[in-house]
Q: What sequence folds into this?
């Protein structure tokens, strides 16, 4: 595995990569943390008036291109080996960036958690292999820790047929970009994988209590990215994903189906967007420092055998900055596979343990 020391030994103390969406909440975190990995990103986005001051502050180069302009997008990727794409919502932004990367033979990493994006990216597998590039959506909290625990459990119980994954946060908060992505799902259904196929189910159709080690929390099913990625990584045909929620809120969600038509209207979604736009860009540095991310997983087989494990680590946005830079560092050192890849599928179940502050334990 590549380390910061390895990169310096190879006279690659400042290998360049392109960080698109550097002006966003997570993009700024990544830009500020990059030097700890011996990396010097070229900052990029569509608005010079925002990108240029940030580049000057961090003493970094910058480039400007709109995702809707394929020619301009290819021009800023032409001489960089990898792009770390941090501009969501990825259901809108991922495809044009992937297609530009195929044209310029640039490795692609993003930080999405959207099932639709993973399934779209998989369709470019053959083209990516032909271009000899890697396409890896989900290089952050979406879905590095959950993907790693899924593979870890699969290795413990190779004939597993069912996988449940749950995550929760203590402290921290939600960024502007994450909130906007979530708002696009208002009134929509959730999803699980059953017998190898992704099927729609009501949001929160199941709930349960999970012991995360440092705290016991209630969780409910949501359409997390692992419904797509964990199947690719492990081959387990039945997958459910859960997140922490207050039990009272969960009970209210039982009635959501009655109002889904209203939640999907432009009027309601615009009201929500306006409220998000008026809010802070994301959790403060202090909240991030005090926050923690928790992950739990369980696999079972047809004989009734079970394996459980859990992780805890830094707050989600901090974890995302570290994990996405770790992956970028590996690519720049030549540790890369062509085609569509998942984080644990490419780099193994222990990838998450390279993130500072992450611990893992087997429960049973």
A:
């Amino acid at each position: 595995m590549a380390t910061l020391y390895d990169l310096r030994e190879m006279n690659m103390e400042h290998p360049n990569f392109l960080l698109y969406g550097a002006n966003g909440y997570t993009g700024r975190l990544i830009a500020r943390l990059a030097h700890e990995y011996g990396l010097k990103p070229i900052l990029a986005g569509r608005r010079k008036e925002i990108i240029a001051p940030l580049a000057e502050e961090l003493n970094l180069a910058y480039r400007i291109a709109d995702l809707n302009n394929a020619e301009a997008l290819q021009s800023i990727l032409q001489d960089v080996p990898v792009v770390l794409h941090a501009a969501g919502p990825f259901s809108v932004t991922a495809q044009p960036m992937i297609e530009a990367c195929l044209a310029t033979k640039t490795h692609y990493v993003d930080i999405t958690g959207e099932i639709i994006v993973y399934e779209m990216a998989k369709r470019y597998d053959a083209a990516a292999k032909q271009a000899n590039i890697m396409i890896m959506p989900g290089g952050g909290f979406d879905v590095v820790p959950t993907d790693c625990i899924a593979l870890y459990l699969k290795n413990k119980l190779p004939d597993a047929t069912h996988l449940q994954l749950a995550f929760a946060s203590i402290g921290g908060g939600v960024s502007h970009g994450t909130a906007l992505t979530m708002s696009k799902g208002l009134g929509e259904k959730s999803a699980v994988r059953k017998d190898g196929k992704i099927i729609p189910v009501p949001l929160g159709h199941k709930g349960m209590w999970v012991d995360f080690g440092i705290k016991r929390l209630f969780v409910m099913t949501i359409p997390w990215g692992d419904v797509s990625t964990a199947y690719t990584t492990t081959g387990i045909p039945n997958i459910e994903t859960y997140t922490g929620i207050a039990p009272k809120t969960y009970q209210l969600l039982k009635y959501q189906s009655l109002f889904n038509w209203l939640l999907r209207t432009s009027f309601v979604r615009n009201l929500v967007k306006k409220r998000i736009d008026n809010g802070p860009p994301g959790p403060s540095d202090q909240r991030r420092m005090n926050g923690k991310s928790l992950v739990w997983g369980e696999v079972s087989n047809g004989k009734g055998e079970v394996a459980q494990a859990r992780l805890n680590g830094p707050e989600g946005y901090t974890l995302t900055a570290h994990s996405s830079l770790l992956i970028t560092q590996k690519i720049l050192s030549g540790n890369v596979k062509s085609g569509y890849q998942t984080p644990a599928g490419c780099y193994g179940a222990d990838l998450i343990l390279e993130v500072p502050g992450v611990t893992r334990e087997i429960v049973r």
User: Anything to note?
Assistant: Confidence is low (pLDDT under 50) at residues 1-15, 173-187. The longest strand covers residues 162-170. The radius of gyration is 20 Å.
